[in-house]
Design brief:
Layout lengths: L2 E10 L2 E11 L4 E5 L6 H9 L6 E6 L2 E2 L10 E5 L10 H11 L4 H14 L15 H14 L4 E5 L7 H18 L2 E6 L2 H7 L2 E6 L2 E6 L1 H6 L4 H7 L3 E3 L2 E3 L4 E4 L8 E11 L2 E8 L6 E6 H7 L6 E6 L4 E4 L6 E2 L3
Parallel strand pairs: 3-8, 3-9, 6-7, 7-8
Antiparallel strand pairs: 1-2, 1-4, 4-5, 9-10, 11-12, 12-18, 13-17, 14-15, 14-17, 15-16, 18-19
Helix pairs in contact: 2-3, 2-4, 3-4
The structure holds adenosine-5'-triphosphate.
Adenosine-5'-triphosphate binds next to strand 2 and helix 1.
Length: 331
Amino acid sequence: MSIEVRGVGKRYGDFVALDDINVSLPTGQLTALLGPSGGGKSTLLRIIAGLESADGGSVEIEGVDATKLPPQKRNVGFVFQHYAVFKHMTVAKNVAFGLEIRKRPKAEVKAKVAELLELVHLSQFAHRLPSQLSGGQRQRLALARALAVEPSVLLLDEPFGALDAKVRKELRDWLRRLHDEVHVTTVFVTHDQEEALEVADEIVVINEGRIEQIGTPDQLYDEPANDFVMGFLGEVTQLGGVRLRPHDIDLATTPGAPDAVAGRVVRALRVGFEVRFTVDVEGQAEPTLVVLSRTHARALDLDVGAQVWLRPTTGATSVPVLGAPATKALA
Ligand SMILES: Nc1ncnc2c1ncn2[C@@H]1O[C@H](COP(=O)(O)OP(=O)(O)OP(=O)(O)O)[C@@H](O)[C@H]1O
C-alpha cells in the first residue's frame, strides 16, 4: 500500500471534522475523495500532505510512518484550486524551480523540464509567463511543477474547481490519460460525482467526517452501501417503499405485471436524448420520476394525463426509503 491512514481523527474545538478514518490506497492508484462541502475531504488530504496534524491515528506513506514528518519530508506533490505559480517566472522556470533548489545538474533539469512540458502539452509555451496562459493551461503547469520532483504521491485539492465546465471536462480526461502514462499514486478531492466516477479507479465517499463507502465507481453506483451514497452518486426517485434510479423503472401503458403500481403522467420533459416523466402514483405523497430514452418514449406515445403502470426493472438497485443497506432486485 502506498498510503495507509489508520484511526485518524481531527477536531476543531467541539466540532468533529474527521472521526476515526481508516483507508488504504495502493501504489499507482488514482483515488477520489468525494463528498458534500464541509464533509472533511480537504482536511483528510491536508493531513496526508502534512499541512495539518491529526489529533490521533497514523499516516504511513510508502511504508514510512509519516505521522510526524513535515510536508517537505513526505515526498508528496500537491496542487490546489488556486495554485500560486511564480508569476515572474516563465513556464519552464516554474517547472525547473523545485529541481534547481535541489541542486540537480543543469543538463538533467533541462531534460526533465522538456519532458514534463511535453507531458502536460505546454512545450510551445515554455517561454511565456503564467499570466499569458489560460486557466486550464495554468493548472497543467501546476501539475507539471508538482510532478517535477518525482513525488511518490500526488495530492490534488479540487484542482479544476475554479475552471469553467468545458475546460474542467477536458482536464479531467487529460488527468486520466496522464495518470495512465505516469502511474504516480494520486489522491484528488472533488465534490463532483461525475468527475469522480469518470476519473477515479477508486472512490472514498466522505460525509460529516466519516467514510460512508469505499469502492470502484461501478461498485458505488450499482451497490451503494446506503441511502446517502445512492443519492450522492446519481439521481434518485421513490416508488412504493424503495428509492431507486429514475432509469431503473419500467413504464407501461397496461397493468401487465401484478406488482406494477398505477399512476398518471403529470409532466413530460424532453432533455436531449431522454424524456423525463413525472408520474403521480396512487397512495404515494411524492411523485415518481421516470427517465426513458427518446426512442422508447416515442414508441409509448404518452401525453400528460395518460394512465401508466410502474415497476422497478429487473436487477434495479434500490434502497428502502428509511435507508438500510441496498439490495438488488431478483431476476
Ligand atoms: N481551521 C479550521 N478551523 C475550524 N474549522 C475548520 C477548519 N478547517 C476546516 N474546518 C471545518 O471542518 C469541516 C471540514 O472541512 P473540509 O475543508 O475538510 O471539508 P471539505 O469536505 O473539503 O469541504 P469543501 O468541499 O467545502 O472544501 C468544515 O465544516 C470546516 O468548516
